[in-house]
Amino acid sequence: MSSKYESILVVGEPAVTITLNRPDIHNPFDERMIAELTDCFLKIAKDGKARALVITGAGKSFCAGADLNWMKRMGQYSRADNIADAGKLAAMFSALEAIEVPTIAKVNGAALGGGAGLVCACDFAIANVKAKIGFSEVKLGLLPGVISPYVIDRVGGKRAAQLFMTGERLDAEMARRLGLFDDITEPDDLDTVVGNLLTQILTGGPEAVKACKRLARAGTRMPRDDFRKYCITAIAEARASAEGKEGVSAFLEKREPAWRK
User: Fold this and answer.
1) Secondary structure class of 77 (helix, strand, coil)
2) How many CA atoms are closer than 13 Å to the CA of 232, on its beta-carbon side?
3) Has residue 3 been placed in a domain?
């Protein structure tokens, strides 16, 4: 899967790690990285073998936002060109959102602009205590258009508006308080904390974990009565599934379920 990628590294199974790999310039997005991430996300979703996805950055930064040369090229784009370009970035985030397994942002350093959006688009965000995060687009006379749905999902509309309007760069502790980061840890402990989270995820039934992610999303998007019906069907299907039967049997027989072996 990773043989043709130049801007990212992809390793691991069943927990896949994608590393943004342009450390000399702080791992910014450009057309190539966006295309490679989109391709990789789509393949992970289609392949179905991964049970979790970790996204991190090489070197000192997670992702510094937009590549400067890419920004220069944008300045020459027509309106139609800009719409097409923004559409490709939106497609990348949609491909990440469509992944059914848990996604974890392992924030090793600064996450700015689109990089901050990438953090918010993940299910979990675990950060180095020295990491910074911010939505600095307003400082350039721009706005965080494509990433805004994921930020709003994380912190709510009012708080997102505040962060967008000020463009303030937040330290890790403040980001944790606001809900941008779920946990923060010392730099030397980041691998261990993310590893412990992966261990917890992998103890659950693979299909049950996916179903839980779908369940939570459905609850935020469906009318109440529709969601109630969804919940009834979801638990009925889980009880009748081979995985559900194995999990209950293993519990009653005081043994490990098959997926943990």
Assistant:
1) coil
2) 6
3) no
Any idea of the CA torsion for 142, 147, 152, 157, to the nearest 10 degrees?
20
Structure tokens at 48: 């179905």
Q: What is the CA radius of gyration of the chain?
A: 19
Residues 202, 198: Cα–Cα separation, whole Å:
6
Total Cβ atoms within 10 A of residue 149: 17
Q: Would you call 104 helix, strand, or coil by DSSP?
A: strand
Question: Do 137 and 74 touch, CB atoms closer than 8 A?
Answer: no
Q: Determine contact, residues 67/29, Cβ cutoff 8 Å.
A: yes
For 173, residues 6+ apart whose C-beta sits below 8 A from its C-beta are 129, 184
Q: What is the pTM of this model?
A: 0.95
Q: In DSSP terms, which residues pair with 56 in a beta bridge?
A: 19
CATH code: domain of residue 228: 1.10.12.10
Q: What total of structural domains would you count in the chain?
A: 2
Look up residue 156 and give its amino acid.
Answer: G
102 contacts: CB under 8 Å, gap ≥ 6: 52, 53, 123, 124, 201, 209, 213
pLDDT in tens, 18-38: 999 999 999 999 999 999 999
Q: Are residues 136 and 253 in the same domain?
A: no
**Tell me: the pLDDT tens digits for 35-76?**
999 999 999 999 989 999 999 999 999 999 989 888 888 888
Write down the pLDDT at residue 73. Answer: 86
pLDDT at 3: 57
CA distances from 43 to 86, 123, 148, 167, 191 (A): 22, 19, 25, 34, 25
What whole-number distance in Å separates Cα of residue 25 and Cα of residue 66?
11
Helix (H) or strand (E) holding 52: strand 52-57
CATH number of the domain that residue 79 is part of: 3.90.226.10
Residue 2 lies in a domain: no
